[in-house]
Amino acid sequence: xxISIITVGKLKEKYxxxxxxxxxxxxxxYAKIEIIExxxxxxxxxxxxxxxxxxxxxxxxxxxxKVHPDAHVIALAIEGRMLTSEQLADNIDKLAxxxxxxxxxxxxxxxxxxxxxxxxxxxxxxxxxMTFPHQLMRLVxxxxxxxxxxxxxxxxxxx
Length: 159
What we know:
Elements: E1 2-8, H1 14-27, E2 32-38, H2 49-66, E3 72-82, H3 85-97, E4 102-107, H4 115-120, E5 123-126, H5 134-152
Parallel strand pairs: 1-2, 1-4, 3-4, 3-5
Helix pairs in contact: 1-5, 3-5
Keywords: Cytoplasm, Methyltransferase, rRNA processing, S-adenosyl-L-methionine, Transferase
Protein name: Ribosomal RNA large subunit methyltransferase H
Catalytic activity: pseudouridine(1915) in 23S rRNA + S-adenosyl-L-methionine = N(3)-methylpseudouridine(1915) in 23S rRNA + S-adenosyl-L-homocysteine + H(+)
């Protein structure tokens, strides 16, 4: 299985990079994983709605340019469906069973995802009704994908 995590912005925090590297290394036993960063748009504090839409649009174009045409796209969005770790594992397992070997998870920038990205998504996933920094979501997502593969294979993992 090929998993892409397409995300807006560069990761600067060393502790997050270390955590992501650790889970990416662990995940490599189960799937090929690639983290693709697209540049974020600089967003001043007081943006109009039109400015926000324009920024999301530009970031969205960059994201969509990185999505493989055959990929099953899962957008991370606060309004998405909440799943347990076991349900996420089951979803990933079903995708593999039905020949979807490419999964692209998309993490937007600080303003969220453009409508065009949400339209391209096959499903949207929410980790919580709370808002998290998009940089932290990379780590949480990689850990949950790793956990999903452990669950699918019936391997022990702390609960």
